[in-house]
Amino acid sequence: MNQNSFKLVLLALVLSAVALGCKSSKKTATITSASPEKVKTPPEVVQPKPSEADEQAKLDAMKESTYKGRLSQYFDAIANASDAVSANTNIDEALFLFSSPQAPVLIVISEEGSQKDYDRPTTIRSYLNYLKDQKKNINRIENLKMDDSGKITEVELRKNN
C-alpha cells in the first residue's frame, strides 16, 4: 500500500466516524426535543380559592354568632341578677358591645312572609333596664347589625315561644 492509499483509507474512516457521530447526536437531539411535547402530564387539580367576599361573609357570620351568644348571656345575667348593683354592672359591661347606648332595639311581634311587624322601638339602654326591672328575659336575639369597628348598631329580637 502506498502512502496515498493509506491517507485515503484513514480519511474514509474519519469521515465515517464523524458521520456516525453526527447521526447519533442528531437522533438524541430529536428524541430530547420531542420528549416534552409528546409527554403529557396530568392536569393539576386546582381548588377554587374562596373569594374575599365569601371569606368576609364567614367572618361576619362567626362574629355575629359570637356577639349573639355574649349578648344573650348578658340578657340572662341582667334578668336573673340577685340585686340592682349586679344588674347595673352587667348593663354597663353589655353597653361596651354597642356603638352607642342609643342603639335601636326592635322586637318582632308578627311576621307574614317577608313582612315583619315590630313593637314600639326602644334603645339598648332602655331594654337592658327593662330586663333588670322585669327579672325575666322573654325575647331571643334574631339579628344584629354591626359597624366596621365591630360594635353593634341595632338589635332585632323575637319573643321566645
Short overview:
This protein has 161 residues and is of the alpha+beta class. The chain contains four helices and five strands.
Which key terms come to mind for this protein?
161 residues, 5-stranded mixed sheet, alpha+beta, single chain
CATH level-3 fold name of one domain:
Nuclear Transport Factor 2, Chain: A
Helix content estimate: 40-55%
Instruction: Give the structural class.
Output: alpha+beta
- The pLDDT mean sits at 81
Uncertain runs are none
CATH architecture of one domain: Roll
Number of helices: 4
List how many beta strands DSSP finds.
Answer: 5
Global geometry: rod-shaped
- For the record, the CATH class of one domain is Alpha Beta
Radius of gyration: 41 Å
Distance between the termini: 121 Å
Task: Report the order of strands and helices.
Answer: HHHEEEHEE
Fraction of residues in β-strands: 15-25%
Q: The biggest beta sheet, please?
A: 5 strands, mixed
Oligomer: single chain
Task: Report what the structure shows.
By secondary structure, the protein is α+β, with helices and mostly antiparallel strands. It has a domain at 55-159: Nuclear Transport Factor 2, Chain: A (Roll). Helix content is 54%, strand content 19%. It contains four helices and five strands; from the N terminus they run αααβββαββ. It has helices at 3-38, 52-79, 84-95, 124-134, and strands at residues 104-112, 115-118, 122-123, 139-146, 152-159. Strands 1, 2, 3, 4 and 5 form a five-stranded mixed beta sheet that branches. Strand 1 (104-112) and strand 2 form a beta hairpin. Helix 2 (52-79) runs antiparallel to helix 3, helix 2 packs parallel to helix 4 (124-134) and helix 3 packs antiparallel against helix 4. The protein is rod-shaped.
